[in-house]
Design goal:
seven-stranded mixed β-sheet, about 20% strand, 11 strands, four-stranded antiparallel β-sheet, 9 helices, about 260 residues
């Protein structure tokens, strides 16, 4: 039986969303149409987002009140988590790895980035988050246009994929997972701390089904693990418009 907190929903289901490329263009705000659609959806089912970014970045895309606009808010794959606006227990990447191992990992990454010959480099090549680090060969300070250019270049040169292969071999004993997501970066986090981590927070809620929408659902993408998990019904999308189309077909019949 579903938790009493969600007994008023028409369907006893939870619908989870990736953020970048699913609810909004990468690192940009969700459209007013998408926000309104999500409000309508919440009347029918329980909703939640699960993003790899920290909460402040997700709020830039989904609104400053995002933790209250969804039933579940999962930043950093659920390592920072909210249920009905109230924060749940969190985890720490540093506590898992230890300062010495962390320093060796970051030093190696920075040396590798310094030796990379790519057309453009900006700043913030390693971003420390609570439950992971985010690594960007071009740097997270790149503009939208520079991000688009790098994404195209990376699709041809496979820079991030090669980088991940090197790290996976060099730090094989660290128990880490490397997950490519967005346009310009990849995440590094302890094994098991991918997006399936958020499912532990909803395990006892009693939902009949858990749906997940994401765009990086291929092997190596940061939506792959939760998309293929036996506990979810996965939907692979190509854009926010594609997400909206499927939502209307499945849950919002006749609402445009």
């Amino acid at each position: 039986m579903v938790s009493p907190d969600f007994a008023d929903r028409k369907h006893k289901k939870l619908v989870l969303f990736d953020v970048d490329g699913t609810l909004s263009p990468a690192r940009r705000s969700a459209s007013p149409d998408m926000i309104n659609l999500l409000r309508d959806l919440r009347k029918e089912v329980a909703t939640g987002f699960v993003g790899g970014s920290d909460l402040s970045k997700i709020q830039e895309q989904l609104g400053s009140n995002a933790v209250n606009d969804f039933d579940f808010a999962f930043a950093e794959n659920g390592l920072t988590a909210y249920r009905l606006g109230k924060q749940l227990a969190s985890q720490s990447f540093i506590n898992f790895l230890g300062e010495d191992k962390y320093k060796k990992l970051v030093n190696f990454i920075l040396h590798y980035v310094a030796d990379m010959d790519i057309p453009i480099k900006r700043g913030t090549f390693v971003e420390f988050r609570n439950g992971m680090i985010n690594v960007s060969p071009i740097g997270r300070n790149a503009s939208v246009e520079e991000r688009n250019q790098f994404e195209k270049y990376d699709k041809e040169q496979k820079l991030r994929s090669a980088f991940v292969d090197v790290l996976r071999e060099k730090f094989a004993d660290y128990g880490l997972t490397y997950s490519i997501g967005g346009q310009i970066s990849f995440d590094v986090f302890p094994r098991g701390w991918d997006k399936t981590y958020c499912l532990e927070h909803v395990r006892n809620e009693g939902f009949e089904e858990i749906h997940f929408f994401g765009d990086k659902t291929y092997k190596g993408g940061n939506d792959y693990e939760i998309f293929t998990d036996s506990r979810t019904i996965g939907h692979s999308v190509t854009s926010p418009d594609d997400t909206a189309r499927i939502l209307k077909e499945l849950f919002l019949h006749g609402k445009d």
